[in-house]
Amino acid sequence: WAASSGGLHFIVFDDSADVGTQGDVGSLGLLGELKVSLRPLLDDSKARVEGAFTLKRSISDPASPGVGYLEVSIWWEDTAFGAAAFGLPALTAPPMNETEFQAVLGRLVRHLNAMGVQNPERAFDSLGAAPDTELR
Question: How many Cβ atoms from other residues are within 10 Å of residue 13's Cβ?
Fold first, then answer.
């Protein structure tokens, strides 16, 4: 999956948006999305993938304008080689509560439905099962 999917897919929503019950993408508070390749992490256990990546309104449309940036830093973390090795502090953000999780999951599923994904729950279960697996 990490080698062939195009990368880790980030979908960014505006948390302050008034989310309606309609399925159209405009009502979801979608700010943008991007994919970040994880290929370097497969080739080197000490590699880092980092930078300010451009959010696009739609990654499926090559002409989609950039709408902002997402700063990302991804690396392998284990007991021998983790955040401390880079001089970085451990993450201290509290996890989402159930209500927040359900709100985010609902927006994500509705976004995927609007993109044509027929069964998002099943699609997530099957990702990576076969090299040619797609979200459809």
Answer: 18
- Specify the DSSP class assigned to residue 132: T
- Are residues 2 and 39 in contact, defined by beta-carbon separation less than 8 angstroms? yes
% of the chain exceeding 90 in pLDDT: 13
Helix boundaries (H) for 1-136: 39-43, 98-114, 120-126
Q: Answer whether 0.85 is exceeded by the pTM.
A: no
Residue 73 · residue 48 · CB < 8 Å: yes
Measure the CA angle with vertex 90, ends 87 and 92; round to 5°.
145
Give the pair of three-digit tokens for residue 31.
């700010």
